[in-house]
Design brief:
CATH superfamily: 2-enoyl-CoA Hydratase, Chain A, domain 1
Radius of gyration: 19 Å
CATH architecture: Alpha-Beta Complex
Strand order of the largest sheet: 1-2-3-4-6-9
Number of helices: 10
Largest sheet: 6 strands, mixed
Amino acid sequence: MSEEATVLLEDTDGVRIITLNRPDRLNALNDSIMAPLADAVADAARDAAIGCVVVTGAGRGFCSGGDIKGSRVPAEATPETGGPTEQGHLRLRAHMETARLLHEMGKPTIAMVNGPVAGAGIGIAGACDLRFAGASATFLSAFDRIGGSGDFGSTWFWPKILGSGKARELFFLGEKYDARSALDFGLYTRVFADEVLREETLKVARRLAAGPRMGWRYMKANLNNAEDGVFEQHLDQESLYMGLSTQAAGRIHAALQKKNDGK
């Protein structure tokens, strides 16, 4: 019996719904989901029949960030691919195309936040044009908890959405927001009761899909041009720094643990 798909697709009235499907892990990102997710978003961007894209999570969460509990075979250094640092950077950068495409595709994109969102998940949510959340949704940057600097465009999108000062508060203080306080802070566009979140989100998504698609395309291009600068360069830098920072945190933790064990 084949394993269940980690990314689910549904089309309705010109809307493509992309669902992260690892509900047992609050849709945490690992290799089994990141590559299919990037492919799904790329396909939605290319599909002329699709006028709006909605991203959400299966079960009770949107996306809890990277799956730090997952195991990966140590990378073997080669002349062609470099060592673990280079390979990790290239791997993460490829997966982060999800955020770039959600942001840059010529179609409105909506994050339907049906529960907790954290870490890389806030990058995916921030990449979308709109963020509709259920009343049970929470929001947490979480990068400080793993000694990470941020990925999936999170440190690009949130200063632009919130302003630099509030974005620094979001990342440095690492506070957890419930749906209402997240709305007040500017993290969510709208908040709905959990039982009507899908209905209300799709109501807007269908209206957008039925609207002037070329108008939305050029409107979005204008809005992005007004703020983006060199976005891909930022993603390159962000994925490199995420790898460097988490590796440093892991090595420091291991060194401290070894020191403590020796006492």
